[in-house]
């Protein structure tokens, strides 16, 4: 039965049931964020009536509505069941709009429970359908949700790019909810990047939009996030006001997961004010809600926090019980970060009680978790690349389909395509003139230009930045034993790891051979430069897989600081080179920050490109 035949059947039916169904569904959607329980009752009423009438189109929409509302209420299992039922109907009786919405909501349910692989699969499928059906709003929604996946994977740059692409589309349409959600997502990404003031501004914008549209659920969530920002900014009174407002709003709307999060955040606030009893009371209520929701990850998080409140109140035995329970549940769920935190706190607990055997055991387990987190970070970067590849394939597929529809106009567009091709060639030529072919990083010429810009900007804004010269240790042995192709592959992988360690505004460049250089902006002290350089050292500790072989290389890093060590390109690069030369002579695989008593040897004078 086609869409057209379904529409004809509905219009021919004199029974007013279809009109009543549409009214119930519209009202249920309006109430979903302000009175979720009433919305669910209307959705179920619509589902029963659609079943009685045999109206499969509206039955799918009713199931979709019920699934969305149950997700809002934290009933994930039933929500997923409703959404799969609706999806099956739309696949049998094609309805692109409803099918896309089912897929997107299934992805959101998976994301809420931390199932990011199936979530991304649902979003990618929805993205493909959105582009095939030329539905820009749905495409923007998919991009927004993919941004959430990349945010979890730690690829904040790509997440922000997806969010901003989505926001650009949403701003051109009337639905305030989309504009609210994407601003909340941009705020959480800024928080991850420690840009708290910028995050707070996004949350304020989201709160204003939610207030204007009477969306209490997102008004509550925006208030919750504002409270967390105020706490990070050391503004306790504003934090408490926002968190209490968030708790009341989320409680009124019946959004239980949000209520549990607000209770936990209030517990954190009271603990920061050394009010351990009040903190524990809020944590206890949050735990009760998390248990009702069967949200085990939230349970682990709150247990760890409640242990801090118990220790502060002098209830060591209860704190130990909470930590052991949190650790047991975290290990059962394979929550490595939470297991790591629990082991660390248990290690400190036993150390304070001079039980060094238990303290050491938990300390070793903590370090094992940290190594696993490092390995997981590598896996996440791989997942990011795979998802990007899939997105690019979807984009190319959509372009090919559009191209088939545009073949009749091909003759008229030939001159334009030729012009665009020439422009691309010019842009590629410009890119290759300023970038290293092997890694895609800036070359020496472009690095000097970027360094000159950094000097001018830092001088205007009275800021410190670092110039780092990075020389690989052990590269020649790999190149000699495995060949030049393996050496090239190793250089490319090293470049990716270096790039992943730095902020988006920072620069990594390749001078040639096994030499790299970096510009690291906005430093507060030389210690910041030392810390970031050590991060660059650490990222090479994991072996590389090259042509079937595991290989290890290290790096020696020389650092100079603007304006302390120089205020021009020649001096800064020479002094970074000098520091690197010193570390190469003494012992490889370390960091050396330039000091005035170093002598710049003749071999370390700036090299020409």
* CATH-level-2 architecture of the domain at 444-604: 2-Layer Sandwich
Class computed from helices, strands and strand pairing: alpha+beta
Mean pLDDT: 85
- Tell me what portion of residues adopts beta-strand conformation: 5-15%
Gap between N and C termini: 69 Å
Keywords: Coiled coil, TPR repeat
Domain GGDEF: 463-596
Pfam families: GGDEF (PF00990), TPR_12 (PF13424)
TPR repeats: 140-173
Outline:
74% of the residues lie in helices and 7% in strands.
List keywords for this structure.
single chain; Alpha-Beta Plaits; disordered C terminus; 609 residues
Task: Give a structural overview.
- Strands 2-3-1-6-7 form a five-stranded mixed beta sheet, sandwiched between helices. The protein has a two-stranded antiparallel sheet with strand order 4-5.
- The longest helix has 50 residues.
- A hairpin with a 2-residue loop joins β4 and β5.
- Helix content is 74%, strand content 7%.
- With 609 residues, the chain is an alpha+beta fold.
- The chain is globular.
- It contains 25 helices and seven strands.
- Keywords: Coiled coil, TPR repeat.
- This is Diguanylate cyclase (GGDEF) domain-containing protein.
Q: Topology of this protein?
A:
Layout: H1 3-12, H2 17-31, H3 36-53, H4 56-72, H5 76-92, H6 96-112, H7 116-132, H8 136-152, H9 156-170, H10 176-192, H11 196-212, H12 216-232, H13 236-253, H14 256-272, H15 276-293, H16 296-312, H17 316-332, H18 336-352, H19 356-405, H20 410-434, H21 444-461, E1 464-473, H22 475-482, H23 484-501, E2 507-512, E3 515-523, H24 526-538, E4 544-546, E5 549-551, E6 554-562, H25 569-586, E7 591-593
Parallel strand pairs: 6-7
Antiparallel strand pairs: 1-3, 1-6, 2-3, 4-5
Helix pairs in contact: 2-3, 2-4, 3-4, 4-5, 4-6, 5-6, 6-7, 6-8, 7-8, 7-19, 8-9, 8-10, 9-10, 10-11, 10-12, 11-12, 12-13, 12-14, 13-14, 14-15, 14-16, 15-16, 16-17, 17-18, 18-19, 22-23
């Amino acid at each position: 039965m086609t869409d057209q035949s379904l529409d004809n059947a509905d219009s021919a039916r004199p029974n007013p049931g279809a009109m009543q169904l549409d009214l119930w569904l519209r009202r249920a959607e309006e109430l979903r964020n302000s009175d979720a329980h009433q919305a669910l009752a209307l959705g179920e009423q619509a589902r029963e009536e659609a079943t009685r009438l045999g109206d499969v189109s509206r039955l799918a929409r009713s199931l979709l509505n019920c699934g969305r509302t149950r997700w809002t209420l934290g009933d994930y299992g039933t929500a997923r069941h409703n959404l799969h039922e609706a999806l099956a109907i739309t696949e049998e009786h094609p309805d692109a709009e409803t099918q896309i919405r089912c897929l997107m909501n299934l992805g959101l349910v998976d994301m809420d429970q931390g199932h990011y692989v199936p979530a991304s699969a649902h979003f990618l499928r929805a993205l493909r359908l959105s582009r095939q059906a030329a539905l820009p709003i749905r495409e923007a929604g998919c991009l927004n949700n993919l941004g959430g996946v990349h945010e979890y994977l730690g690829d904040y740059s790509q997440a922000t790019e997806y969010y901003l692409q989505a926001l650009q589309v949403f701003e051109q349409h009337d639905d305030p909810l989309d504009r609210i959600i994407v601003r909340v997502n941009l705020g959480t990404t800024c928080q991850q990047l420690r840009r708290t003031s910028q995050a707070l501004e996004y949350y304020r914008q989201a709160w204003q939009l939610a207030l204007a549209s009477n969306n209490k659920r997102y008004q509550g969530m925006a208030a919750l996030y504002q409270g967390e920002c105020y706490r990070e900014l050391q503004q306790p009174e504003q934090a408490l006001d926002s968190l209490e407002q968030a708790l009341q709003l989320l409680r009124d709307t019946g959004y239980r997961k949000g209520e549990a999060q607000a209770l936990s955040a209030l517990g954190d606030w009271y603990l920061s004010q050394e009010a351990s009893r009040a903190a524990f009371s809020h944590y206890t209520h949050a735990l009760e809600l998390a248990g009702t929701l069967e949200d085990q990850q939230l349970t682990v998080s709150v247990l760890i926090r409640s242990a801090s409140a118990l220790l502060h109140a002098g209830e060591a035995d209860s704190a130990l019980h909470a930590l052991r329970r949190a650790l047991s549940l975290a290990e059962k769920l394979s929550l490595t970060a939470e297991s790591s935190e629990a082991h660390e706190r248990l290690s400190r607990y036993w150390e304070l009680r001079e039980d060094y055997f238990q303290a050491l055991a938990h300390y070793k387990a903590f370090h094992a978790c940290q190594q696993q987190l490092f390995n997981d970070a590598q896996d996440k970067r791989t997942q990011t690349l795979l998802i990007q590849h899939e997105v690019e394939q979807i984009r190319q597929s959509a372009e090919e389909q559009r191209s088939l529809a545009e073949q009749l106009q091909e003759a008229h567009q030939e001159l334009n395509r030729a012009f665009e091709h020439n422009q691309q060639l010019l842009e590629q030529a410009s890119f290759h003139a300023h970038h290293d072919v092997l890694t895609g990083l800036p070359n020496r010429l472009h690095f000097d230009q970027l360094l000159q810009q950094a000097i001018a900007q830092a001088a205007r804004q009275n800021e410190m930045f670092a110039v780092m010269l990075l020389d690989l240790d052990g590269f020649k042995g790999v190149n000699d034993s495995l060949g030049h192709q393996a050496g090239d592959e190793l250089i490319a992988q090293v470049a990716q790891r270096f790039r992943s360690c730095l902020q988006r505004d920072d620069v990594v460049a390749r001078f040639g051979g096994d030499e790299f250089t970096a510009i690291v902006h906005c430093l507060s002290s030389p210690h910041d430069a030392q810390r970031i350089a050590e991060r660059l050292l650490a990222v090479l500790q994991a072996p590389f897989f090259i042509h079937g072989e595991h290989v290890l290389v290290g790096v020696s890093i020389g650092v100079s600081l603007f304006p302390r060590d120089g205020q021009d390109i020649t001096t800064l690069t020479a002094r970074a080179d000098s520091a690197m030369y010193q570390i190469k002579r003494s012992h490889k695989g370390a960091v050396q920050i330039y000091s005035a008593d170093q002598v710049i040897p003749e071999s370390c004078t700036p090299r020409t490109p």
